[in-house]
Amino acid sequence: MLNIPLVAAAGSAIVATTRAGARPVAGRVPRLDPAALEAAITGLPSPAATGAILKVTGSAGNWQGVSGVRDVRTKAPIPPGGRFRIGPVTRIFTAAVILRLVDEGLVGLDEPVQRYVPGLLPGSYPPITVRRLLDHTGGLPDVEEPGAGDAEWFVAHRLDSWTMRELVAGAVRRPMAAEPGTVQRENPLGYWIAGVLIEQITGHAYTVEANRRILRPLRLAGTLAPDRRDPRLPGPHVNGHVAVREDGRTVLHDVSRQSPWSAAEGGLISTAPDLTRFMMALFRGRVVPHPLLDEMFRVPDVPSDGEHRFGLGLMRVAGPDGVVAWGQVGSRPGYTTGLLATRDLSRVVVCSLNSTGAGSASEHLAAITAAAFGV
Predict the structure, then answer these.
(1) How far, in whole angstroms, is CA 136 from its chain's centroid?
(2) pTM recorded for the entire structure
């Protein structure tokens, strides 16, 4: 493996603008540590990831850097402002669109989704509220995405596509996993249903509504909501690669071109600057108005079968010193993306790892989260 030294983002230095302190104050982000942030993404490309972009902003300090290569074939450098597939970070955008519909009186958070999209769910299913779709307490059946965990299958079928209605129809052949409102279980199915709800209520494709309600008003020029049949990753971007075992050796396949069929659950494309801008606008009430914004941070008082807890579209990550970050972390083949911020915006972190599936990209994510938030 070729080792590429970590470099600062083009046109910017590695800077720490926070004041030094003897010890962290409970509930406050730790002093910005450029060395720890650099160490979190250094050593790329590796079997686990071919490259990384990391951008840290906020009132408590700023830092940005890249590591690895854009393309393992050409060894081209990573464009710090390049596009990448954001996977489940898309859920934040989807929840925001739903809450804007709530603000307009078109949807009720505590009304059953069956009221708005009759016939989408089996008649044997109990009423499932819109809120429970977004906070993962709907009790919906567990879902495996097409080709999940099968790199060879994905490489061969990466241009295949399904509508959200088709994905939902395939999933709800199974019985409910739990009674609604009794347990929190992270599940992409709720966001496919939310995407269908958006289309049913507005009469427009999810991509149209994401553009009209969020991307254009915020001038997120680097963010795209592509049609599911459009596999392109246009403009300066970071290539995603998937590792496949062939004839006893590991071969990396470029999967930058892939169908964004996951749509409302994971189909958006963005950049580190755009995701930073979006999160700042969201938390300041420029996307979802108060008091509906407060609903995004409300974690239901039910047991969870996972490591993290969720509000509406937002994952909650809590540290031992009282620091709490909100956002999403997740993957699409070739890409692992994290977007996390403290509610006071003292720290906003965007990271994109070009994970190959051959190793554990989670080690890099854990190091980034620890360096940025002390968690």
Answers:
(1) 15
(2) 0.93
